[in-house]
Amino acid sequence: MRYMPHTAGERAEMLGKIGVGSIDDLFADIPKEARLDDLLKLPLHASEMEVEKNFRTLASKNLSPYSTPCFLGAGAYQHHIPSVADHIIQRSEFLTAYTPYQPEISQGTLQALFEFQTQVALITGMEVANASMYDGATSCAESILMACRVTRRKKAILSGNLHPHYRETARTALQFTEFSASELPPVVEGAEAFDEYISEEIACVVVQNPDFFGRLQDLTSLAEKCHAVGALLVVVVNEVVSLGAVMSPGEMGADIVAGEGQSIGVPLSFGGPYVGLLATRQKFVRQMPGRLCGQTVDQDGQRGFVLTLSTREQHIRREKATSNICTNAGLCSLAFTIHMSLLGEVGFTKLAKLNHGEAVSAAEALEEIEGVEVVNASFFNEFTLRLPKNAADVVEKLAAKGVLGGVPVSRLIPDQPELENLLLVAVTETCSTADLEKLVSSLKEVL
Amino acid sequence: MLNKQGRPTQPSSPNAGNSDMEFETYTGNKALELETPLIFEQGVAGRIGVDMAEPKAVKSRLGGIERKDSIGLPDMSEPQVLRHFVRLSRQNYSIDSGFYPLGSCTMKHNPRINEKVARLAGLGDLHPLQPVSTVQGALELIDSLAHWLKTITGMPAVAMSPAAGAHGELCGVMAIRAAHEAKGQARVRILVPESAHGTNPATAALCGYKVEAVPASKNGRMDLDAFAKKLGPDVAGVMLTNPNTCGLFENDIKKIADMIHEIGGYFYCDGANLNAILGRVRPGDLGVDAMHINLHKTFSTPHGGGGPGSGPVVLSEALAPYAPVPIVTHGVDGYDLTEHVTGDTARSFGRMKAFHGQMGMFIRALAYMQSHGADGLRQIAEDAVLNANYIRVGLQDQLHSPFKGVCMHEALFDDGSLKGTGVTTLDLAKAMIDEGFHPMTMYFPLVVHGAMLIEPTESESRQTLDQFIGTMKHLLAKAHANEEDYFHGAPYFAPRRRLDETGAARNPVLRWSPPAADTSDVDVTFSAAS
Amino acid sequence: MTIKFTKDHEWVLLEGDVATIGISDYAQDQLGDVVFVEVPEVGADLSKGDEIAVVESVKAASEVYTPVSGEVIEINNDLEETPTLVNEDPLGGGWFARIKITDSTELADLLDEEGYKAFVEGLD
Fold first, then answer.
1. C61, A286: Cβ pair inside 8 Å?
2. So what CATH class is A344-446?
3. Fold identical between A84-340 and A344-446?
4. Most-buried pick from A99, A130, A446, B248 (CB within 10 A)?
5. H or E segment at B359?
């Protein structure tokens, strides 16, 4: 077997040195009746060539969105990933290092994390960010728990236009704690009314911008209302490219920003692994979950980086930790940092404008189709269409024509007849004019 | 004419560069060891690292919240960014470059075929919300991985979505709580051995349980009498790592399972150390109700400097109905996905993250399993355990073992043999860095003083193990030869010497900030790669 | 106005019905470099044995439990900026909080300075 170096002779010699007669002697602590004598009922080992073939076969049974017009979003977005990003994350020293527990020989990972934290703080308009969470949904749930700790209150208000998976993840995370969340119903048209729910009882209001339907809002007055009662505003951003074009959550008064960073450098990969962003104000830093990298100096006075404020974390605080999280999204956060470094100020803002421009022209073209209406007045690169027919059926028919035309709202919010004809359409820089023409013509055919 | 041109081909006189000279360079670089400033100190306005089309001139539909301020990101070219991160990479130790015996972390070889197949078009680039008719291969892959995991563990069900080991623990304990609640039982305590990973008590607390620690016995296993005394009708379950964090198999595990089941509780097994028992015993045959599997440990998906992980959880018949959504099912037209808590999944405790789980890790783990097969998986456990015992015996005259007898996949020592030398476990670890090894896990588990937990894994050759053992013997002899100061100063040859962690925690600097405004007219940019 | 100690290494200084609470020199030495101290909120009602502070070093977090019951009337705000006070002046500037006590008999069981000194010497 190519991955294991010992020869039969070496194994025998090593057993001799250890002073046991056979390998079975080393497994003697396993209860006799549970020991396996035979091999598991699974195939035997395979060559690299065979394995590759198996996966090519599996891949051939899927439709790659990069080989066909694709307008899917709803929390995961198709963007171009620069080749440098994927090359660097495959460098042995990044790919096959563990968590940087020995900072003297982990400065590569640590400095990159420090750069990541700074980039995330800058784009969200916040003071500090952590070294990443599993994904946007878990980051959102952790933000609610954090807001409860900061305010010493027990109740959160969740916008009805928060991504349904994020709502479900938060509901799941809170269900066995002393904290709870009130979930408002989705509002497809018009503004959501929070006023009656905002009181001195609540720890935070959680809103998404752009929201699940794609709509953008100025959250400044909502932030003020929260602050007036001592509550926090948690802003969720699951399309981070939008931050290149719109006011940052920090500028609008957010106290915690929970984000999904997949759009920058991380492949779609059928939903994971992604990279959760969590940014906040410096004064709340000791209530943050997850790893934090900080700057310091070494014995010779040279600048260096370490994991810091670990007393918040499970390996020290155990049952009193801010979270049970241990792993972060290390390599995905590195991909994010590299892609963002390549973009820079000029590239990031341009990418955002490019996305918005494509989306606006797509919306204009789709609105021309009879019976099709763009529901939301404002959007970044994703908007909601109201179709004259059931959106899930339309999506199936489009797929049969090789067009991934959008995400039916009913896939995420089922059993609500008034939402059945709604279709989320995302348009990024990867969509060509021909892709859009194909969507328009196919849609006309199936409607 | 004689041709005397060309370069000298021998070193110059032996007096050149005395050994007591201070070697300093103008740049701060040392040959292949190259420094690189933060990206924020390297940017030059106007540079760009990604070319793209010009945005269309459209009427903005941003709802009046256009960004007006600049963000402050540095602008860099592609070669500059590439060089920056290549330089950074070289300041990292990695399993590809050397021995990484970090106990409890299973730092094994990361095969590159796994990376290759994870990037195939049609696998790595799928959108999670494509119609299921267009992702039949992806669902088949998840189902296939689930089959391997269930077969390896002897368990009937598996929840695939947890994103990491600790997330898997949360999944398992939530399933336990949901099962108790379904029976109308409000149990309040979870028992956790003192030697457990910190994630165990943290997870139990997140599920609203009171955590009670069970002490270890003299032989490094959970103290059965203490455990029995803590059992009662209000105990929801026990969280036990097996093999445990001392590297030992809990030989009373079946008795423990019976005892917890007798009082109506459930048995959560922390599967961090599954590598040691692959193909030799199935947790399902030991009475386990839930166990997470760290795909990034046992099944070699790369650690990536701290993630991403993946932590599927195998479940017993009793807990399976409470598994989180989504669930891959076999429909009439092929594979299907159940994404909501309804119908067949009505008892599910909910959803743990967006979408369907860490697909990128599933692909790599399945490729790893297929490469090994049933025969290779068993060989993994055997060689991992063989290697750990080889180290245990190789160092038994120099280092003190707190527990006698054979170990499983990792060898545990305490700092007893360092007593009186003035050298601590930390000092020894730092000296190992200079010798080109990544240190072992230190000061964990907490039940052992100055713990050193060494996990070699099956990937290492006998030659590497011999070199490691030889190095440890050398360093320990040095420690006993009154060279305390040498150890306190180590490492000497790493990219950084010891770092001031106290200063970092007292005055946290968690991001770069622009220099003070008075330098605005001065060009402070210094770029390593411009 | 005498200082008293607990076997958990806290000290209490009673002036009238106000008790000032901190940790001993021995305790700060054992903890090492203190990097952060979490103190209670003014107005908090604490019972004997409740957590009154968390003292953090780089590698550990130690809970401090109040030896007396009462209402927190003042906290040491200097600790936020200068947690090193706990190391440098544990019995003075490194105090955590002042409590208006409700039951002075709770102090009866505590050690006096001599008794505490003897207790600490017996520890190692």
1. no
2. alpha beta
3. no
4. A130
5. helix B359-394
B341 Cβ neighbours under 8 A, 6+ residues apart: B325, B348, B350, B351
Q: Domain residue spans in chain C?
A: 2-104
Architecture of domain C2-104: Beta Barrel (2.40)
How sure is the predictor about B522, in pLDDT bands with cuts at 50, 70 and 90? Answer: very low
In the 8-state DSSP scheme, what is residue B254?
A: H
Q: CA B173 → CA A254, B199, B230, B285, C70, distances in Å? A: 33, 12, 19, 20, 38
The secondary structure of chain A, three-state, reads CCCCCCCHHHHHHHHHHHCCCCHHHHHCCCCHHHECCCCCCCCECCCHHHHHHHHHHHHHCECCHHHCCECCCCCCCCCCCCHHHHHHCCCHHHHCCCCCCCHHHEHHHHHHHHHHHHHHHHHHCCCEECCCECCHHHHHHHHHHHHHHHHCCCEEEECCCCCHHHHHHHHHHHCCCCCEEEECCCCCCCCCCCHHHCCCCEEEEEEECCCCCCCCCCCHHHHHHHHHCCCEEEEEECCHHHHHCECCCCCCCCCEEEEECCCCCCCCHHHCCCCEEEEECHHHHHHCCCCCEEEEEECCCCEEEEECCHHHCHHHHHHHCCCCCCCCCHHHHHHHHHHHHHHHHHHHHHHHHHHHHHHHHHHHHHHCCCCCEECCCCCCCEEEEECCCCHHHHHHHHHHCCCECCEEHHHHCCCCHHHCCEEEEECCCCCCHHHHHHHHHHHHHHC
Give the tens place of pLDDT for each residue, B182-219: 999 989 999 999 888 889 999 999 999 999 999 999 99
Q: What confidence tens digit (pLDDT) does each residue in A74-119 have?
A: 999 999 999 999 999 999 999 999 999 999 999 999 999 999 999 9
Instruction: Tell me, yes or no, if the pTM score tops 0.90.
Output: yes
Q: Tens digits of per-residue pLDDT, C32-60?
A: 899 999 888 899 999 998 999 999 888 78
What is the per-residue pLDDT for B20?
Answer: 60
Considering only residues B14 and A258, tell me which one the structure prediction assigns the higher pLDDT: A258
Question: Does B503 sit within 8 Å of A296, measured CB to CB?
Answer: yes
Any idea of the CA torsion for B139, B142, B147, B152, to the nearest 10 degrees? Answer: 180
Q: Is the pLDDT of residue B266 over 90?
A: yes
pLDDT digits (tens, 9 = 90+) for B428-441: 999 999 999 999 99
Question: Please, what CATH class does the domain formed by A84-340 belong to?
Answer: alpha beta
CB proximity C59 to A under 8 Å: yes
Is A316–C60 a contact, with Cβ atoms under 8 angstroms apart? yes
Residue of C nearest to B505 (CA): C35
Q: Is A324 touching C (CB cutoff 8 A)? A: no
User: What was the pLDDT predicted at C30?
Assistant: 87
